[in-house]
Each structure stands twice: as structure tokens, then as C-alpha cells.
Amino acid sequence: MTKATKLLTALPPPQRQRLMSLAREVSFPEDARIFEAGGTADRFWVIRSGAVSLDQRVTSLQRVTVASLGSGDLLGWSWLFPPHQWDFGAVAFSPVRAYEFEAEAVLKLCEEDPALGLVLVRNVAEILAHRLEMTRGKLMEQYSMRRHAL
């Protein structure tokens, strides 16, 4: 299983400083919907404190939590890949403080500094691989529980 990569601590100090020059501090109150699946993905966050639940709409009335994120975690990766729409929804599970980054500015920085761009994309890929493995494990757990219930 891949390790849980924390984006900012994984970046070498010079690249981290360049990326952080674009950061804006934001906060979300508990139960605030940060983004909805299908919406325009034009930014991302690194959580400083609090917890965020990623969810997927199953029916018009039901959502399923697919992951929980906390301090140091990357929130949002859809900004990096066309069609730049959120794949999941996100809601603040508790009050959240985060660094917010506008995708356009980060992508421009990556063009200006290809070494930063490569490190950033590799780290986002590691984060995605870890989350995919975690999701697979949760699905297997759910399947196993349902099979035993029958």
C-alpha cells in the first residue's frame, strides 16, 4: 500500500516556498459544502486544521462518504485534469482552516518552473494512488459485510 503523502511536506523547501507564495488562508464552518461533484474545479486546498468528508451522491437524497481528510491533506485534484470538474463533493465535517490555491496561478507557476511542476504532479499522483487503494479497501469491506449478511 502506498503511504499517505502530505503535499506541502513532500515538496522540497524551494518549491514549497514558491507554491506557498500563491496561498490564501481560508476557513469553512462546520457543515459547509466546499464543492459539489460536477462543479468547476478551479482551485484546491491544503487543510491546516479540521476535517473534510468527500462524498458521492448515490440518489437525489443519499450521499455516501468515500474519504475523510484532515490536517496536511490535499483537498481537490480535479483542477489538474480536464474537464476540470469535481468528481466528488466535499463538506466540512468540523470547522476547517486551509490554504487555498487558484489552479490557474499554480499551473502558470508550473510552466515557469518545470521542476516544481514535475514534483507537484508526482506528489498529487502519489496522493491519488493512496486514496484509490483506501477506497478499494472500503469497497471490499462493504462487499464482505453485505455478503455475510445474506
Can you put this structure into words, describing what you see?
The protein is an alpha+beta fold and 150 residues long. It is built from four helices and eight strands. The chain has helices at residues 7-10, 13-20, 103-112, 114-149; strands at 24-28, 33-35, 43-49, 52-57, 63-69, 74-75, 89-92, 96-102. The strands form two sheets. Strands 1-8-3-6 form a four-stranded antiparallel β-sheet. The chain has a four-stranded antiparallel β-sheet with strand order 2-7-4-5, with helices on one face. A hairpin with a 5-residue loop joins strand 4 and strand 5. Helix 3 (103-112) packs across helix 4. The longest helix has 36 residues, at 114-149. The protein is globular.
Task: Tag the structure with descriptive keywords.
150 residues, alpha+beta, 4-stranded antiparallel β-sheet, 39% helix, 27% strand, globular
Strand and helix order:
HHEEEEEEEEHH
Q: Tally of extended strands?
A: 8
Which structural class best describes the helix and strand composition?
alpha+beta
Helix content: 25-40%
Give me the number of helical elements.
4
Radius of gyration over all CA atoms, rounded? 16 Å
For the record, give the distance between the C-alpha atoms at the N and C termini, rounded to a whole number: 30 Å
Which helices and strands occur, and which strands form pairs?
Elements: H1 7-10, H2 13-20, E1 24-28, E2 33-35, E3 43-49, E4 52-57, E5 63-69, E6 74-75, E7 89-92, E8 96-102, H3 103-112, H4 114-149
Antiparallel strand pairs: 1-8, 2-7, 3-6, 3-8, 4-5, 4-7
Helix pairs in contact: 3-4
